[in-house]
Amino acid sequence: MTNLTDEERSAILDMFNRLLEDYHDEPRLRQVMKTDEGFCPDLWLKMGELGITGLLIEPEYGGIGAGPLELELLMEQAGSFLLCSPFLASAIVAASLIGQSSEESVKQRLLPDIAAGKVIASVAMTGDRGLWTEGDVKVSATAGDSSTVLDGVASYVLHGCHADVLLVLAKFEGELALFEVSPAAAGVARKSLSVNDPTLRLSRIEFSNAMAKRVPGVGLAEVKNMMDLTCIGMAAECAGAARRIFDITIEYISERHQFGRPIGGFQAMKHMAADLLVEVESAVSVARNAAQTLTNTPEEADAAVALASFYAADAFFEVAAQAIQMHGGIAFTMEHPAHLFWRRARTNLQLFGSSDSHRESYLVALERAA
Amino acid sequence: MNLSAEKKALQTEVGDWLEQHWSPELRRDKPAWFKKVLEAGYAVPTWSTKWFGRELALESGKIIEQEFAKVGAPGSAQDRKHLGAITVYHSGSESLKEELLYKMLTGGATCLLYSEPGAGSDLAGIRTKAELAGGEYIINGQKIWTSAATVASYGMLLARTDWDAPKHKGITFFILPMKQKGIDIRPIHQINGDATFNEVFMTDAKLPVEYVVGELNAGWKVLQEALAHERLVMSQGLTEKKAKKSSDSAQELIAMARRNGRLDDKVLRQELAQTIAYRKVHRLNMARAKRNDDKQSKASLLAIAKLAMSRVQHSEGALRAKILGASGLLDGPDHVDAKESHYYSASGYVNSIGGGTDQIQRNIIAERILGLPREIEVDRNIPFKDVEIGGDRN
């Protein structure tokens, strides 16, 4: 992976920030989250033009070939705007897996369109338990006379119902393998799941005798690489979102008056705020550390990624939950944005593995390092 | 300029000098050795040449310190560690520097005489009295939480000199000679078993009129400067020596859980991982503060460090006890794990109370970092003699 210069990096960050301000402020977010598609087409188009949807894709396939450091920084920004889009699903999860394929023609066919934002790709990878582990892959592939077919169920598929390119992790001859299916193919039944977080789009997909093409060269190791990037992206999103709802809260308690003074002058509030600042800063530290470790000393990345995954998600939830409490009644209304952060925080405690499972992985990594 | 060549030259210079002059038996005559170090310009290298320094950069000072550390020689880096001398150098008058710096830098250690039983979190509420009589100050009062009081030659003393002024405006910062008969030092028996702190009783103790640091009744300002230096000292070096590396501490806790047959307990594993994470996260925050050139972000990261460290220490103490279960009830030299768990659990309060409680730190974070309104202080603008005091204090 190529590394961008500091200038290029801050240029992309600035542009992305401006895009989000222009196309994804709170009123826009509220419009977008009501749509079936769950993203703003104008913003998506612009992200494609700027190369953001091609962030991790190598330049020879139309991307900008950035790495974990840039991903982390962009996702902090995405988090602070509660970005509602298939960015993670398509540009991170799917692009990472396809990019690791040993088959040149697959990469040439799929990656340029993903990089340009012309298609949305998604990966079906976990079953009804939603564990995001190898054991929870509940689709199996069987080689038939003329082609391979998929059977089974995948759930919690991000933007699965509107994905143009559908990839499926399946058990094949006892190993983990990646397949591409046409979303419209016979034997593929996609169902949109009803979810609590309005910025989230999840699907459940049933496969029965569905024709699929193997994406060669993607197995357990490649899936792990993808999960490292995805978890860093998720942690960064948590860090950025935590910072934003914290700032909103501090602004509010500085202005809201009761008993003749700003409620932020009461120690009950100040002490909560100080404790939350610890979480806000720590979330940023763990997310950036994971990106740096994966870049500089990938052999030590397991612990760093696991740490970022649970710490940032827990921190985000703590900050978002206390933000509602500190606001009081105003944040108990749908009109106020605090609940959107809180819902996303509850999403991120589960998506791509629970905090508890990441905490366990962290300890396992430390035991291995002993 | 080739910095690394300059660095090498300094290294060689100091190394050669130490080889010529240092031997471990010199430790027996500390003042003589400190005098030699001072004269060679290695005691306070970043200070001005007028006051025993060489006007070197901080980095060069650290090189000298490293060379001294290699051979185990004391006396270097006093410009980073000797709080008394640092305070006199930065806040004292020329005549006070003339009078005290040499004495302090040649083995005259200092202790802090700030807190009082009635003035802890509210330090400006001190009631130790300094009165001018017969050409000297007579000191009466009681100080507390003074470490190294028995070995110190000088105390950095906060005392009240104007009782009609509001509380912050009647305080003067003094240097008090500790070796005199008006001073009685009693150790405090702490809940962790240590006795690192003392009470200091001053009964008609005396100090020369010249031993005022800064202006009369401007002690609060001098104190802020001294505290800033103290924080710097704490954040460089001193704490580094004490702080465990997060990796060591993690493996120590994992080993303890294994040794006690608890490493396969799923619930305990969660708590173990979380506790280890707290220390690691604190370390990552500090590393980020160090790299950060954005002032605001750096201040934020440094301000939360105390709270984060309290969480580290209290949670490690609690985890140790949890790993041990009922055997954590035991104590004494035959039960090392239990003994340590008690020590760690009790010692957490050194961080969460000492140097200003975590609650005061939360106020500071809220006001100075987050810009929330200041606490209302009912005693701020009234003469100190009219300030109400609770309890049975006089």
What's the short story on this structure?
By secondary structure, chain A is α+β, with helices and mostly antiparallel strands. Chain A has helices spanning 6-23, 26-32, 41-50, 68-80, 87-99, 104-116, 220-255, 267-296, 301-327, 338-348, 355-369; strands spanning 121-124, 139-143, 148-158, 165-172, 175-181, 188-192, 202-215, 257-258, 261-262.
Task: Describe the model.
The complex is a heterodimer of chains A (370) and B (394). Chain A is α+β, with helices and mostly antiparallel strands and 370 residues long. Chain A has eleven helices and nine strands. Chain A has helices at residues 6-23, 26-32, 41-50, 68-80, 87-99, 104-116, 220-255, 267-296, 301-327, 338-348, 355-369; strands spanning 121-124, 139-143, 148-158, 165-172, 175-181, 188-192, 202-215, 257-258, 261-262. In chain A, the strands form two sheets. Chain A has a five-stranded mixed beta barrel with strand order 2-3-7-5-4. In chain A, strands 8-9 form a two-stranded antiparallel sheet. In chain A, α1 packs parallel to α4 and α5 packs antiparallel against α7. Chain A starts with 5 loop residues before the first helix and ends with a helix. The model of chain A has no long low-confidence stretch (mean pLDDT 96). Chain B is an alpha+beta fold and 394 residues long. In chain B, the strands form two sheets. In chain B, strands 1-4-5-8 form a four-stranded mixed sheet. In chain B, α10 (295-324) packs antiparallel against α12. Chain B is globular, with a radius of gyration of 24 Å. At the A-B interface, α7, β9, α8, α9 and α11 of A face α8, α9, α10 and α12 of B.
